[in-house]
Every structure is written in structure tokens, then in C-alpha cells.
Design brief:
There is one protein chain. The chain is α/β, with parallel strands linked by helices. It has 26 helices and 21 strands. It has 5 domains: 1-46 and 146-183, no CATH class; 48-140, Beta Barrel (OB fold (Dihydrolipoamide Acetyltransferase, E2P)), CATH 2.40.50; 195-246 and 661-692, no CATH class; 257-447, Rossmann fold; 458-616, Rossmann fold (3-Layer(aba) Sandwich). Helix 11 (257-266) packs antiparallel against helix 13 (304-317), helix 12 packs parallel to helix 13 (304-317) and helix 22 (604-615) runs antiparallel to helix 23. The longest helix is centred in the N-terminal third of the chain and has 33 residues, at 214-246. It is globular, with a radius of gyration of 31 Å. The structure holds adenosine-5'-diphosphate and magnesium ion. Residues 304-305, 399, 556 line the site of magnesium ion.
Amino acid sequence: MLAEYLQTPIEYLKGVGPNRAELLRKELSINTFQDLLNLFPNRYIDRTKYYKINQLEQSSADVQIIGTIVSFDLIDQRGGKRLVAKFKDDSGTMEMVWFRGHKWIRQSLKLNIPYVAFGKAKWFNGKYSIVHPEMELLDEHEKSLRSAMQPIYPSTERLTNRGVSNRVISTIMQNLFIESKGDFRETFSDKILNDLKLLSKKDALFNIHFPKNQTLLAAAEYRLKFEELFYIQLQLIMKNLIHKTKIKGFTFIKVGDIFNTFYREHLPFDLTSAQKRVLKEIRYDLGSNAQMNRLLQGDVGSGKTIVALMSMFIALDNGFQACIMAPTEILSVQHYNNIIEYCKHLNISIKLLTGSTNTSERTKIHKSLENGELNILVGTHALLEDKVKFKNLGLAIIDEQHRFGVAQRSKLWHKNTSPPHVLIMTATPIPRTLAMSVYGDLDVSVIDELPAGRKPVKTVHRYDKNRLKVFRFIKDEILKGRQVYIVYPLIKESETMDYKDLMDGYASIEREFPKPEYQISIVHGQMKSADKDFEMQRFIKGETQIMVATTVIEVGVDVPNASVMIIESAERFGLSQLHQLRGRVGRGAEQSYCILMTGHKLSNDAKTRIETMVRTNDGFEIAEVDLKLRGPGDLMGTQQSGVLNLKIANLIKDKDILSQARFYAKQLLKADPKLSQPNNKAILTTYIQLGKYKNIWNYIG
Ligand code: ADP
Ligand code: MG
């Protein structure tokens, strides 16, 4: 079947027409035959099984019952009327209920003739009823071609209300198969089909919509999931390859004086072997003639900063400039201070540029950037402003990528004649499956080892009513010379309330920890940045023992002497946020603690989050749980969720298929980078079509 045929607007399919087409477009984004074909069922129900009314249970999901309608009643109720049919079989009676379409239903349904009723049976007012059931004459039901496993398609309330029921969708799907004779083009090569023993495209599509049996259904699902994931991977890997061949990067041929001097004389600790490995990977990229586009993942505290800095040294050694960009002012100030400290014995010019840099300083920075006097620029989004022009930016480092959009990533490119090498660092561990799908076009390095001597943070859960014990514990720790964070939620939707909670909390902590014995810092989003900075600095210098804050301290803040992290209303935080916050402690040699405070009532999800935090310190494990709880779209933010708009595969359940798809896509491109071999023609055609008809698969971004 020709691809063009499948692009026919859906209204031209038998049984659709303009009105239903409009509904299908609006409700399910079905524009073409192809879209309909790719409307995969959510689940299947066994249509050979019939229930008796006295077998129904409160938990019965979709059931079908054979019986007759013995009477109709139109009953007044608040907000309109409902039509109730008394429905009877030889075991009892129940009700079929309609809130809309009374006239039409009353006319089309006949009394005292056997029907098959289908729908969700609910226990209501002392009897079972089905609201808006599908009713089919038993006679016709038996004649229909439908398979024993009835697919249940995605639907919306509006579709059901307008009469586009699951049965209607099944029927138009049948029409599509009849009209096209089910002759759908194969999208894989024989080799892949044989190697993986995949069902043909034709058989897979038939069996996903009209399964002949469980085995064929499973094979159909597998084939279609593999296909979906395969073509995403093919796209991403292709993008990466094209990038590597087309986009020439600067070649940093040498590792020179700055790098070597620092490494030999000023590096304050031994690098972990993970840090060394990652540096090697980066050096390799920088030395090749392709532009680097690398994601560096490393759990909080794994030591990404030093890797970033030493990578920048390589750029400097080759006569280029480098920059590092962080999402917040506090973070960029901290990077700046760290870098200044590391570089104090080196002759390097380093400047900080943020929103609060004053005009005269700004002008100086612009000038020294353009004439090349400035070597390293550290800052926030301010780096992206048009006025910021580098003489020769060789390497751009972006910390905490998830806060920046992909668009901003590419904006950095346009600061040069040639794009700089780009290193993106993130402490939010991304489950491998997700990384493969979202960042599949990037190369990935992972620091999977913490510096030696770190003690894992001990995490406990405490209820609010035990607060006094917690306060006592804090006092003991302070007595030992440690510092403490107390973090409050501040969530946009309930900002005023949260702000009040924070202030109340602060007041009670001031009472509990009186001056002059105790000194307290407070930092929150409504403060001026100079004040924030002042309070932060007092804590960093050890002048205050307690830091009361909102999540502004979430990322990156580094005070090794802080050993206790108290998280108030911990049930309100997401898992990755909790993990980030916990990462603020455990950075020194002392045993550190994270105490999650909650009220007594916890939702199931909140319980899972807290239990996960108490159980493990492993960021990747936490990310997996987070992915399960929240789903991929949420996890990545809306910007990337489009990529994850999968039709049949599921990144959590199908991660093995994903790995397999990636493996095969890689192998294929290795053997035939341009897909020019005759036996890969089907794949090439599909690949081109994916680009051409973007609406076919909306994950093409
Ligand atoms: P993150 O990966 O969270 O950004 P940082 O780069 O801030 O981590 O490093 C966390 C802390 O660990 C810093 O205080 C840093 O000086 C220290 N550190 C980094 N690498 C090592 C190492 N190899 N040995 C000992 N300490 C290290
Ligand atoms: Mg960091």
C-alpha cells in the first residue's frame, strides 16, 4: 500500500464523514488513515466471556451480559433527566442508564429481544447498573466478525457522548482494513525481520487491531513497539552522526601548560577513576575534528566541577576561551569562587557575569571578551545576551541542563563563527532508558563513583510531632561544630501560604535556637539577591550554624561542614528534588544526616517517595522510581515531553526493547551509514517518510 494512500484525510474513510472526522481530529488527533491505523488499543477484553447478573462484583470492569430490556423509565433528577432501562437475565435484574440521547436510544432499542450489553458495571443504590452501555442485538453480535479479543481504544468523553463509541471505532478500523485489503508496506529489512523473528508489518497491524489469539497479539505488540523505538533511535543516532561529520569543531591538539601544571601541582586531591575516565572521553572529543556535544551525568557531590574546569584548561591551552553557565546567580557565584580558588596559582583571567553585574563592570567584561584578554567567563543566562561576544569561544559548559531549554543550548552556538564544543552537566540522574530517548543525540559520560572517604548520608523519616527530638539532635550536631540546613517548600501555586509557613518556621526556630549562642541565616526567593548572597556567605563562612531556606539552595551549594539537612513537609517535594537537597550534605568527612519531616497523613505516592529516600542514596535508582511515579513527560519538563509521546511503547515497561532497538539501529548505521544498500530500502523509505509526514509520529521534534 502506498504511503500516499495512508495520508488520505480521515473523512474519506467509509463510516466517517465530515462530522466524525472533525471529532476524531479534535479528540484523538486523527487526521489521516495513517493516524487511525496507529491508534493502538489500550487493552483487550475477552469477548467470549459473558457474565450473569448475579455474578457481577463491585470490582467488575468491562462486562458483557446477555439479557432483555423489560421496561424504560424517564426519571427526573437534578440537572436533567435520566433514561433507565430495566435489564433482565435468568439470574436477576439490573439497570442500563443514559443521561443523554434519550430520544434516539428509546427509539432504537427494542423491548423483550435478547441484547448483549457491554460496559462498566457499578454498584449503585442497591443494584448494579451500567451507564451508557453499548447495546447490540444478540443476533448481530453473533454474526459480527469481531475477534474474541475485543480491542478497547483510547477515547474521550466527548467522543462517547457524540456516539463515537468503541464499537464505532472498531467498525471504521475494519473498514480501513477492508478498503486497503490490509496490505501495508513493510518497514523493516528482511535481515531485521529474520534476526529478531518479527511479525511482518501487515500481520502486526492486523493482529494489534483484530488479534487472532494471545500469542499473535503479543508478537504484534512486540514488533510495533520495537519499530517505534527503533525509528526514534535511528533518528537520534543519525542526527549524532551527521553532526559529527558535518559540523566541524575546533581541534584542540594539545594538552598544554595550564592543564599539566594544574594537574601536577595544584590539584588538591586525587581524581577518582570515574573522573579520570570522563576527562579522557572529553579530551578525545576535543582532540577530534568534530564538535563535541556531550552530556556529563554525575550524582550530586560526584565532582563534576573539577572535570569541567580541567576541560576548560584544555581549551585555554589551545588558545581558546571557555565559559560556564549555571541556572541561578547563587550557583554561578559559587562556581566562580571555586574556580578562582582552584586557579589562584595560575595566570588566568576569570570573570563573573550575572544579572546583577553593574554596567561599568559589564562593559569591561564585554571588551576583554572581544579582545581575547578574558579566558574564562562564568555566569547565568546573562551569557546568552547578544552583547556578549567572545573572541574565540572554544568550549561552553552548561551546568544543570534541565533548567535550560534545548533552544538555549543552541543559542550558545551562534556566538562564534564555528560552534564551540559543548559539555552539559547534570546532577539529575536520568534513567538510562530516558537518557537514550531524550538525549540519544548526545554522547554521554557518567561519573558513577563518589570521591573516596565519603560516608553515605543517613536518611530518616520523622513525624512533625517528634519535632522536639529533632531539635535536640540539631543542637547536639551544632555542639560538635556542624552546620544545619532547614528547608521549606515553596511551590508557585501556594506561594503565599508557603511563605507564611517559612516565616512561622523561622520564628519558631529563632525561639528554639536563641542568639547569641546560635546564629541563623535565612534565604528565600523574595529576598534581594544581594541580601541572599550576604546570608549565604555568612553560612558558607561558618558565621551562622543554621540555614533556613526554600529550595533556592537545591542545586550545587557546597558547604562541606554542613552535615544535617532537615526537609520540612517532605511529602510535598518530588523525589529528584529531595535527592538534590540531600546532596547538599555529606560533602565533608563527617557522618551526615537527612531528616524528612512530614505530617501523619501521607498519600501512597508520598509514602513511596519517602521510603525510597530512606532506602537508597543511589541517584539512578531514585530516578527510576521517579519515572515510575511521574511518567516521563513530567520528569523532563514539557520541553522534551513531545519526544516521549509514544504510541505503543512504554519507556518504563519496555526498556529492554529500547536497548535492543538502539543496538540494532547503531549496528545498521555502522554497516550502512547512508542506508543506501538495496536491502535497507524499506528502512530508508520509512525514515524519509517519518521526516516528511511529521504527523505520523509526533515524536519527531
Ligand atoms: P557536583 O558533581 O555535585 O557538582 P562538586 O564538583 O561540587 O560536585 O564536588 C563536590 C565536592 O567534592 C567538592 O567539595 C569538591 O571539591 C570535592 N571533590 C571533587 N572531586 C574530588 C576528589 N576526586 N576527591 C576528593 N574530593 C573531591
Ligand atoms: Mg555542581
